[in-house]
Description:
Layout: E1 6-10, H1 17-30, E2 35-39, H2 45-55, H3 64-88, E3 92-96, H4 99-109, H5 114-125, E4 132-137, H6 140-148, H7 161-177, E5 182-186, H8 191-205
Parallel strand pairs: 1-3, 1-4, 2-3, 4-5
Bound molecules: thymidine-5'-diphosphate.
Amino acid sequence: MTRGKFITVEGVEGGGKSTNIAYIAEQLEKSDIDFILTREPGGTEVAEAIRNVLLDTELPSMHSDTELLLMFAARAEHIQKKILPALAEGTWVICDRFTDSSYAYQSGGRGIPTERIAALETWVQGDLRPDVTLLFDLDADVGLARTRVRGAADRFEKEAVDFFNAVRAKYLSMAKAFPERYRIINAQQDLDAVQKQLQMVLDDLLV
Ligand code: TYD
């Protein structure tokens, strides 16, 4: 059986990931593709419990190493219990955030050396890498302004704009390093224009 495609969706907060993931799902349905939607941190019962710890604003601040290791603990569970079994059955996996978020947030944002993340990536993922990563890219302050009207901020959303500028810069440098895997979508435009770009990427994937 042909392995399913593994597609990850990335970007700073406020880039419209959720709306665009719903659009991707619609297009895959139209094309009769068997797929699941999932997210990180989370995606399984255990990984969602780890997510709650990671995003909890009631807890005291955690060390950046703890944060990184919890991200990968959740990821190990998600990969073994959900992602790999789905791909093996030929089901496509559309994942809202994956390891590029760890590079962008824990390395770009928190300053953990990239090699630490690369070591965990090799350990936890073996040779599993996304086939395609969609990066919804926009100015960090525009993204933050969009999320701040949404209500209660989680532990990451409480960070200052400098943090998100560093996160965005790391995403863009990853996109440069892996041009064959990354598709950058300018998320600062209006939704119609964003979906036109997205549709072109999907047309390419669905041939
Ligand atoms: P979420 O509510 O899913 O954020 P968004 O709606 O912006 O996607 O919360 C997930 C948060 O976790 C988000 O702020 C990014 C962060 N994160 C990391 O810092 N490292 C990671 O490896 C992952 C997967 C997420």
